[in-house]
Amino acid sequence: MVLVDITNIESTLPTTILGHNFSAPFFIAPCARGGYAHPDAELNFVKGAAYGDILYMASILGTKTIEEIAAARANSSQVLFQQVYLSDNITETQVLFQQIEKLGSKAIVLTVDSAADGNRHRAVRYGVGSADSSYSYLTWDLYKKLSNMTSLPIIPKGIQTVDDARLAVKNGAKAIYLSNHGGRQLDTTPSSLEVALEIYEEEPSIFQQIEVYADGGIRYGADALKLLALGVKAVGLGRPFMLSNVYGVDGVKKVIDITKHEIAIDAANLGVGDLKKIGPEYVNWKSVNAWFS
């Protein structure tokens, strides 16, 4: 659209995620081993998120411990979410949940697309990954049991079909997270954009019933806008922040500033004067929707 007043677009970037206020509709996605890039590892993500007033979802497999990550917050009001993988020991899970609550995290992000290890042959060849055959018990019945073990909302991460999104609503999830694990768990799985398109085509009310987040391949402002236009509440960036961490907290801050600027500029050029009012009419979703015919 053209001839639209877009001069106040930057003021419309702030959003809420599960009721918490943030300056923009994107967050630092949970990524393991931040220490590969910088000795301060995930601490830079915490500090960068505080600077940019955005959400950081910390990985349970971080270089730093969850205690160190929580201690790095700018103040007690800084909001962090904690991503987890679970063992089959329910007692260990209960202890972990209690620890996460005590440390002040505001939500638990449960990775559900890793019931088995991915076939990462090159990773195992270099001793930096797994290609074995361990299996985890993950079901919606277990999800309901886990939800009764904590006062925090549990966000299933790794939703890849509209049917799973429907089940998440049915089982009381307050939010879902579209992700294919960076494409590393199972070859040819759909991207988060394709899943968002499927949900929009088959059950668009899901975007109103619960909050939907998404990650995977988001590099530019236009990437984020496509998902936001379909109804996604906020998008996660992983690799850009992991790579920026080579420069420490300054690199993390730079990515935040660039991403905010790109979202605003691209929205303006799209003719969106208020990011809260972006909708599917701003993307030609029929031309790229594999489920549409």
UniProtKB/TrEMBL annotation:
<keyword id="KW-0560">Oxidoreductase</keyword>
<dbReference type="InterPro" id="IPR037396">
    <property type="entry name" value="FMN_HAD"/>
</dbReference>
<feature type="domain" description="FMN hydroxy acid dehydrogenase">
    <location>
        <begin position="1"/>
        <end position="288"/>
    </location>
</feature>
<dbReference type="Pfam" id="PF01070">
    <property type="entry name" value="FMN_dh"/>
</dbReference>
<dbReference type="InterPro" id="IPR000262">
    <property type="entry name" value="FMN-dep_DH"/>
</dbReference>
<protein>
    <recommendedName>
        <fullName>FMN hydroxy acid dehydrogenase domain-containing protein</fullName>
    </recommendedName>
</protein>
<dbReference type="InterPro" id="IPR008259">
    <property type="entry name" value="FMN_hydac_DH_AS"/>
</dbReference>
<dbReference type="InterPro" id="IPR013785">
    <property type="entry name" value="Aldolase_TIM"/>
</dbReference>
